[in-house]
Task: structure prediction
Amino acid sequence: MGNLIKPYGDTIDDGIVQLSFTLPVTNGAKAKKAAEIYANNLKIEDVTIAHAEEIAEGFTYFVIFGKASVSIDYDSVKASEVSTEFYDYYEINSLIKEKINRKVNVVGASIGTDAHTVGIDAIMNMKGYDGDYGLERYPEINATNLGSQVTCEELVESALKNGSDAILVSQTVTQKDAHIRNFTELIELLEAEKIRKQFLVIAGGPRITNDLAIELGYDAGFGAGTVPSQVASYIVTCLVKE
Amino acid sequence: MAQIKLDQEQVKRVKNYAKDIADSVQKNVIDGNSSVSVERTVLRLYGVDGTDEEGTPYPNLIVDKLKEKDLLSKGVSKFFAASMLASKRDAMDTAELICQGNILFGEINEFSRADIESKEIELSKEALKTLDSSRIHKSKKQEKTPLPEQPFKYMIVATGNIYEDRTQAKAAVSSGADIIAVIRSTAQSLLDYVPYGATTEGFGGTFATQENFKIMRKALDEASKKKGTYVRLVNYASGLCMSEIAACAAIEDLDMLLNDSMYGILFRDINKKRTFVDQHFSRLICSRAKILINTGEDNYLTTSDAIENAYTVTSSQLINEAMGKNSLLTDEQLGLGHAFEIDPKVKNGFLFELAHAQLARQLFPDAPLKYMPPTKYKSCDIFFSQCMDSMFNLASVTTGQGIHLCGILTEAIHTPLMQDRFQSLSNVNYIFDTARDLGDEIEFKEDGVIAKRAQTVLNETEEFLKKVNDIGLMEAISEGYFAGIKRLDTGGKGLDGVFLKDSDYSNPILEMLEKEGTING
Result:
């Protein structure tokens, strides 16, 4: 049997997890017991109900600790990260100058009903994120940030007009998995227009993983904490390869 | 409360610049123009509501009819008054008759000018009575269940379903919320009509409709009784229907509206002229019905840096104040906005936040300042996020802010769950209580980091407002002075709905509101 792992509290294999959730019941001994049984059914043993509080009429909030009984074989886990070398601002600009010999065009937007521009702004705005300059600052990149609530049609139209090399799509805060539908809609539109291959299409947002992005038909996906130079590195590396 | 020493002459100078900027927009843009939305508001206040079978609101149908006949520049008021004389029925029936084509709309020769005018005056007086009764009604409710102590705790609900929102709102109130904001469906600011009826589906929020306002206000009246203090209800009068939403809000006794002079222009690409014209009428309605406005300066800092661009926030607050005063709003109605958005990695960032919050407090001593929590640097590590919100809560209570938008620890992840609101309010309640009088106990060191920072922002504000005043606000926006976003005079949505007033234009509601001035009590 491979490399079995389970959560770590302060001793290897103790399986300690912390969990908080709300049950639609009035607080009391019965509610606490219900929370314990519920956790047991989630395969958590030795449950401690650390905190139980009625946060609204008929709704009780729990903080619990327990020991997870499930282990997994770490060797069997498969996941990918965007595999590219990461360069800094200066390296990226000189790579574009030397190897691509023209400006790189990038268009970005937050699509669908999401009004949050935090994600796309972090990557594209001059200022950038976490001390890492945004794409607008790169002299060798023409960056167009369309902002939020952009329709897929508008985004594609702009990408065609600007002769974009890459399309960046962000989804920050959405309800009930709307981000999946929005991401899918863009790819479907590109495929219907038979122009999917013309662009690098990159997804971003706190609920995005590279695997999810690839499953949805994107070239790459970047999650929370991504800085602009990582995205730029990926774009430039792909363009140089071409 | 601790004070930073500010040069009062300099404060006067920045206020004067803002007043000149606002007066110039009032004179050159607002006074000579009206819009389809303003005209629809007149109809709503005359008593027109409802939709045809396809769901198009009657106010839209009627205004569009007048536009087709090229008569809109005279204002809808006189034509509708004439139709009521013709129908001898009430406003609703008359609207239906007009839309069914049973009344020749736009023809007024049948009646004398004097008869029409006197009907317009009668309708307008009734309209003002509606606004007055909203003001009086709220004031009476606040006698029974008084307003709580400031900072007021402001909490959002956003399920898309008004009935679900009601459950969430009641839960938030029981955890300590003083103000409930129903986040609007995200695309609504771009709709050129107000949706109708109770709604159960929205996108990232719930549609603002008059019926939804009524449902939520009723729920909050019950919650207020239970809580013993008055719970305010907020909605959004931004976008293409500012004044119509203000009218619907007044009719249903709403307490606050998001109503910024430049937010729609910059962040929703709504035409400048349209925004300024609609905004003035919407604010006159708010003034009369005692609806507080909230402004949106916090948005600048989600795109620009909170330290480098702090002066744009202060400048916009000053402009919003001056424009608000031109629309008869009192200091107590000006929820001028700002935000706690400095990068948490900046050394002494909290001191800068205190400086910004304190500067706003001192520039607008009687305004219930709207203070927004961190969003831009919110972490997906909810435990760290909760720490950031704690610092925000401390800054708010120490500097005596007015309207405190409770930060949510899952801000960067999803729309709030019930337990997220509870966590947020536990944090706020704890810090507000434990540090309640801190601001009265401390003094700001005269040449310290905080005092110097406030002075720097004020200096930058003065320089900036002088430049804006030199070229005018319209041009300043065209050149990207605010949030680095450029909006041209002829660009943006809704310009085709703006028109020059004819010499024969009439809108007695607007005239009476302007003439009668601020009314309290």
